Amino acid sequence: MQAWRVHRNGEPSEVMELEETDRPTPGDGQVLLKVRAANINFPDALLCRGQYQVRPPLPFTPGVEICGETQDGRRVLATPNLPEGGVAEYVVADEAALLPAPEALDDAEAAALHIGYQTGWFGLHRRAQLQAGETLLVHAAAGGVGSAAVQLGKAAGATVIGVVGGPEKAAAARELGCDLVIDRRSEDIVAAVKEATAGRGADVVYDPVGGDAYAKSVKCIAFEGRVVVVGFASGAIPTPGLNHALVKNYSIVGLHWGLYNSKDPAAVRACHDELTELAARGVVKPLISERVPMADAARAVQRVADGTSTGRIVVLPSGGAR
């Protein structure tokens, strides 16, 4: 089979190599899946760079989530077991963790519903307790993780303010349903949020960026606001001033979705049921900006690494436009 492999750490476009390799062999409790669609995530770029919290042995195949097909023809969502990730024609995955692919979504959309939307749901509902009528500020609102949070925030009845970089991403964020879009390249985030909320600030901040995004967020956080720390796509990990959190009376909460798979797998399945229902009603639908063939996977991962992509880029190993 074909698989993209990384033999040394570095930029994805430089270290990912398309190779012929043996199909992986399932172990106890695992199944072999044919990859129908592999969604590209920012962690795939970090894996290539050797900067992710998990460092698989070299060589490895990136790709942390897929829509796959079982031997009996069922469409399922899976998180492949590294070092044999999803940017390949076949993967193995733990059978107990497979989730049914929503019928309302095609392969590419289904592949993108898993990690990003689960992260958004747990971050907004379990960690931040987002309520209808509150104001949600989403950074990188046109990206893969941010776009999911925008849709989930709107589904929860929140007023959603999206922060983006550039007019193309601003247009995408508006189409996603943001009530207000702030272009960080040309607008003052703090002033815009305060103006939109009559000085109150954002009740919940969803931050997959870190760095300057976090610093500005806590300057426009509401009384009893909650900042959900999702990731550090900017590459800069902020150092919170706990005296500031005390004086302004806000909470800083972390979200590591992967822990729920081991700590509370029943909650993951319950969340998937809810996401499937939202997809069936058309309330959420992953924003797929590109469906690319296997040959273009390295360039796709590099675009995500560079932050130039909008929504999700999905690799289709068979080359079809599913």
Structural summary, described in words:
By secondary structure, the chain is an alpha/beta fold. Helix content is 33%, strand content 25%. It is built from 12 helices and 15 strands. The protein has helices at residues 12-15, 42-49, 107-111, 115-127, 144-155, 167-176, 189-196, 212-217, 242-248, 258-263, 265-280, 297-306, and strands at 2-6, 16-20, 30-39, 65-69, 75-78, 90-94, 99-100, 135-139, 159-164, 180-183, 202-207, 221-229, 251-254, 288-293, 312-316. The protein is globular, with a radius of gyration of 19 Å.
Helix percent band = 25-40%
Stretches with pLDDT under 50, minimum 5 residues: none
Give the CA-based shape: globular
The mean pLDDT is: 96
Short description:
With 322 residues, the chain is α/β, with parallel strands linked by helices. It is built from twelve helices and 15 strands. Strands 3, 4, 5, 6, 7, 14 and 15 form a seven-stranded mixed sheet that branches. Strands 10-9-8-11-12-13 form a six-stranded parallel sheet, with helices on both faces. A two-stranded antiparallel sheet has the order 1-2.
